[in-house]
Amino acid sequence: MSEAALVIRGLRKSYSGRQVLDSLDLDVRSGELVALLGANGCGKSTALRCAVGLETPDGGTVRVDGRPAMVFQQIHLVRRRSAIDNVCAGALGRLPLRRSLTPALFPRELREEAMACLDRVGLADRAAERAGRLSGGQQQRVAIARALCQRANVVLADEPVSALDPSAAEQVVALLADLAHQRGLAVGAVLHQPALARRHADRIVGMVAGRVVLDSPAVAVGDADVDALYLPAVTR
Ligand SMILES: Nc1ncnc2c1ncn2[C@@H]1O[C@H](COP(=O)(O)OP(=O)(O)OP(=O)(O)O)[C@@H](O)[C@H]1O
To answer: Which residue ranges does the record assign to the ABC transporter domain (predicted)?
Structure first.
């Protein structure tokens, strides 16, 4: 197994004195999809947000070997722009400011790279379509293509399929697994669908109240392991 591209150790975070992350450890290796499961409010999003620097932890360490990108449940695309313009947006940090503000000035090489990213998510034929006209599943795949265009090697997805129908959700999680297995990306995804996690993830990490209580190959995770993550606190 390769070195972990994301290594989190002893992460702690509180909001208004209430502890949300309590000494959290998490590794995501290149070439694997790790599904993060756990009940509402157990700290999954906070963990990912700390990992990419959107939140500042109170303690602990985060090491990312490479470039991280995040994919969200709420798909933040510019709806009136084409799919390919949205994917190009992943690279704007690499462009001079003037060129980054005007899609007509995006360099040809960037458009080619963005097209390759769209092709990777199976949407090359929809490149010119306005993002707002694509289905939810297609929009999420455009958001993933944008992360690829950021040249991210660590992709963290926060409930990427919660707004999608079962078939679109299956496609998107399969795509994330494929990007890990075929492209060698390190992919961590918060999922609220344990069955999808067990079908597609390599490893399942389960959280309860800000701590990791399960870290196991997905094939070894049974129904009882999953159920234990969602028990009400009083019965735990
Ligand atoms: N910016 C914030 N300010 C105050 N409290 C916060 C903030 N962000 C998260 N919390 C609280 O921290 C706890 C954990 O939130 P988090 O979103 O990480 O949980 P989660 O496991 O991702 O939940 P869900 O499955 O519902 O998305 C929750 O009680 C939430 O209300």
So the answer is: 6-234
